[in-house]
Amino acid sequence: MDKAPAPPARGRAQISDRGRAERRLGLILAAPAVVVMLLVTAYPLLNALWLSLFSYRLTAPDDREFVWFANYATALSDGLFWSDVFTTFLITAITVGVELVIGFGLALVMHRAVFGRRTVRTAILVPYGFVTVISAFAWFFAFDLASGFVNPWFGLGDHAWFSGRWSSLFVIILSEIWKTTPFVSLLLLAGLAQVPGDLGEAATVDGATAWQRLWRVTVPNMKAAIMVAVLFRALDAWRIFDNIFIMTRGQEGTESLSFLTYRQGIERTSIGMGNAVGVLLFLSVLVIAAVFIKGFRVDLSRVRGDR
Asked: Please, are residues 103 and 181 in contact by the beta-carbon 8 Å criterion?
């Protein structure tokens, strides 16, 4: 008696032929850019790694000592480093979370706009067109005690926004959200355009509410776009520097990892320690990218329903 064929083993999800072809095509198309980036960035990265192994100050170039990984040990055992890690994580978590919610709402508005669609999209994307430095200066002067209009408009009197940790972080985070939410909404808008309209119509016929259609139809089919938006913004927010430099210069407990790298390498001319912190920042970016990619587990061929 013939035995029934054994069911396929539950293991790693199989990738469709179309998925393999698209992956191969993606690698071919990305290869030239990757080669150019490696040529441009390989030497600076390797040089930074090499300099991080020295006790070396720019003011005493002849007094250079090879200390192996002592700079890394010093940084990782310093409370200031971990305080800056927490500050950077706080800024990243809040900005990305708020931008994802607001950006999704703006993407829905742009996607469903019937009249003046181009005008609506242009108005929403205007903040992203500003240079970050200009945007930071604008927010600084708006909340500044001497020249700002926020306090008079809201009756806050002589409240100094940049004299405390949490009020300073509030302005920094607010400026980041205003500047980069349009970027998130643009990525999510592209994801909304890929959601098949017949799925929503079928859900409506089955009696699903608007909220159920959103969470059970729209969002699952936008998983790839959400991953790209969250990943790009998280990596960008983790390297925040401009707003902090212009508004507080790292004072009042607002120093980020990028600013710590600048402070050690430029202000204190400690080239070895500055490069060590920079390498740790680079490694943390790689870890964040790996966690997001593994966490979302997006297979574009499966998102489309290919077999």
From this structure: yes
